[in-house]
Amino acid sequence: MFFYVIAILTICWWWVWRERDRLKITNLTGKYIFITGCDTGFGNLAARTFDKKGFRVFASCLTETGAEALKAASSERLQTLQLDVTDSDNVKKVAERIKAEVGSEGLWGLINNAGIIGPTGPTDWLKIEHFRAPIEVNLIGLINVTLNMLPLVKKAKGRIVNISSIGGRLAVNGGGYFPSKYGLEGFNDSLRRDMIAFGVKVSCIEPGLFNTELSNQTKVIKEREAIWNQLPPATKKQYGEGYLQEDFSLVVQCMEHALTSLHPHTRYPVGRDAKLLWIPLSNMPAAIQDFLSPNPAQPDWNGEKWF
Known about the structure:
Helix content: 40-55%
Keywords: Oxidoreductase
Number of strands: 9
Family: Belongs to the short-chain dehydrogenases/reductases (SDR) family.
Shape: globular
Protein name: Dehydrogenase/reductase 9
Mean pLDDT: 85
Pfam families: adh_short
CATH topology of the largest domain: Rossmann fold
Structural class: alpha/beta
Organism: Crocodylus porosus (Saltwater crocodile)
Low-confidence stretches: 211-215, 299-307
CATH superfamily of the largest domain: NAD(P)-binding Rossmann-like Domain
Strand order of the largest sheet: 3-2-1-4-6-8-9
């Protein structure tokens, strides 16, 4: 009898949680959001997706070429900004421009997406320069952008979404990428708690390692889009315009939930490897982690097996 009661309570809890998770904020059309790292990949897709959904998007790109290509693929609402997140003066100028545009309304969403991998390998192969670049972009740059945009987000009682990685829970290789993501996770947690009093909600998205290497994801997106663009109109109609995005961008779906849900998640692990391998492994004793994690010093180790 006891087990039946537990089973019923579990099912009821799951149903309530699911329904609660589906609740959306209304009247978000026309709200301002700022996304970094929009030249390619997740940021580019997110900028185009939220533009189509009626948000007024500020999309920062590192290169002028990336900005021009994104602008050509978007509506007149979307504004591109050239930004190097490691350049403090550049960050301040972009913040001032956005402040002048949003006025008293403030900034509803900040999506910190810009990031690089940098060289990875056994630690004793690397130099300090190999560590510095990912930390400057993925952590220091992200913090600097957040500090400059925070007054605008607080004014709107909006959302902050930080793109981290399962690499922020478990480091499997040397280099600056994993330390930068560990630091990002710590910053995300402290920021989330600090912002509770101001009505700002902070979320962290944690893609897995197998399918979210930045360069590989960009390649996948470009290849899929090229195929999609060559399909007959009838085939596109059968699948719907949203099919392509849903198929390869769980990360962008998580961004949308974090921006529009009445109850955004604290963390969004993305991908089967994240949920079934990396998160469980990150909670195991260090001895088990060391035994199961890839070891480049092993003669039969193959980096492609893990990345």
